[in-house]
Design brief:
The protein has one domain. It contains five helices and no strands. It is 64% helix and 0% strand. It is an all-alpha fold and 83 residues long.
Length: 83
């Protein structure tokens, strides 16, 4: 996985669940969403974004969570976004 554009963010996580998730994925040699580094760096500033994202992708809706993920992935690809 390529390093982030903001190395200070990538290498300065605060204690919390995103730091743990990143460490688990790194130990396993797995790829993970790079935005987790931002969530780990400033958890108090990004908790609202994380809750919003979960509500949009996992909350009650006429479309299944899987279909919403597929739409998000398609949109990201169309925008040349790697996640």
């Amino acid at each position: 996985m390529k390093p982030m554009f903001l190395p200070a963010v990538e290498h300065s996580p605060a204690a919390g669940p995103y730091k743990q998730l990143i460490e688990q994925m790194q130990r396993a040699g797995s790829e993970y969403p790079q935005i987790w580094h931002l969530f780990a760096y400033l958890p108090e500033a990004t908790e609202h974004l994380a809750r919003f994202t979960q509500a949009v992708l996992r909350g009650p809706a006429p479309l299944s969570p899987g279909l919403r993920e597929l739409i998000a992935a398609y949109t990201s690809k169309r925008n040349d976004c790697p996640f």
